[in-house]
Design a protein that fits this description.
single chain, about 280 residues, alpha/beta, 8-stranded mixed β-barrel, 10 strands, binds ligand C2E, Diguanylate cyclase/phosphodiesterase with FHA and GAF sensor
């Protein structure tokens, strides 16, 4: 069955599900959207955790929650495939809420196990961010899971943030009042500037992986990253470099005093049990 064969490669080749005609969906994609409707209630979603590492100390300062879909027929499906579908269909609201609760519960469990406190970072999609109940939903989930707000970090992409700066400022202000930490994700891809973001109550700036990839091959990119780190620090932000894969990249980031890194050089996203092991081993070594 050709459809199923294609479906098996979902995680790696998601482009093949989109036909060349703009916005037309292949039958596979339509089927996928249908089964996504039941993914939450059938408990098919899983959260992986990718450690964020402090360059100087080597300590794990946070974990980013990254959702996967364990589909019984198709195996593990990457978020790049189903998050866009979820976003378009509105399913992102229940899915996003599920991820948020799972991540808060996990962080609470780590704390209760006596592991050093860290923040758990959760991605908010554009539609989630614009949902009028977002602030109360976050507050309710923190109460339900008994996680202290300062151990939760919410990530919005640069383009989500700048789509309507006044609106963004309002929502972030309310979240910040609650004690939640706030991050700009994929920084550098939204064609904004740090000066436009300076009015937002942010804690963390995540430099997009596309910059890190060119860091050691394009000297102009190195200059840009250095400028982002310098300016970001002057604005009181923590800087995280995304997608660090090579020692040379790390060396450069260290030389410009970037605080944190996330990337395969240290850890890939890990299932919760593996992430727990990593935290436990760190503590005893
Ligand atoms: P993101 O938020 O920018 O997450 C970082 C992505 O980069 C993750 O892909 C991570 O596995 C990958 N990554 C980290 N380090 C490296 C590296 O060294 N090399 C390479 N090649 N990749 C690295 P993932 O888990 O497939 O997630 C992709 C995107 O899907 C995320 O990008 C985020 O936009 C979205 N996503 C994931 N989980 C959620 C979620 O729960 N809610 C929402 N709204 N979006 C999510
Ligand atoms: Ca992210
Ligand atoms: Ca990112
Ligand atoms: Ca990204």
């Amino acid at each position: 069955d050709a459809a199923l064969y294609h479906a098996k490669d979902l995680g790696r080749n998601n482009y093949q599900f989109y036909t060349t005609t703009l916005s037309a969906k292949t039958p596979e994609l339509l089927n996928l959207e249908k089964s996504l409707r039941y993914a939450v209630e059938r408990e098919e979603l899983i959260v992986y955790y990718q450690p964020r590492v402090n360059i100087l100390t080597g300590q794990i300062t946070g974990m980013e929650a990254l959702v996967r879909w364990q589909n019984p027929e198709m195996g593990l499906i990457a978020p790049n495939v189903f998050i866009p579908l979820a976003e378009e269909s509105g399913l992102i609201i229940p899915i996003g809420e599920w991820v948020l609760r799972a991540a808060c519960l996990q962080n609470k469990a780590w704390q209760q196990a006596g592991l050093p406190p860290l923040t758990v970072a959760v991605n908010l999609s554009p539609k989630q961010f614009r949902q009028s109940t977002l602030v109360e939903d976050v507050a309710r989930i923190l109460t339900e899971t008994e996680l202290d707000a300062r151990f939760l970090e919410l990530e919005i992409t640069e383009s989500t943030a700048i789509a309507d700066l006044e609106f963004t400022r309002n929502v972030l202000h309310n979240l910040e009042q609650m004690g939640v930490h706030l991050s700009i994700d994929d920084f550098g891809t939204g064609h904004s500037s740090l000066s436009r973001l300076q009015l937002l109550p942010l804690h963390n700036l995540k430099i997009d992986r596309s910059f890190i990839q060119e860091l050691t091959t394009d000297v102009r990119v190195a200059h840009i990253v250095k400028a982002i780190v310098t300016l970001g620090r002057n604005l009181g932000l923590r800087l995280t470099a995304e997608g660090v894969e090579k020692q040379e990249e790390l060396d450069f980031l260290k030389s410009i005093h970037c605080e944190d890194v996330q990337g395969y050089l240290f850890y890939k996203p890990l299932p919760a049990e593996k992430a727990t092991e990593v935290l436990q081993n760190k503590q005893t070594s």
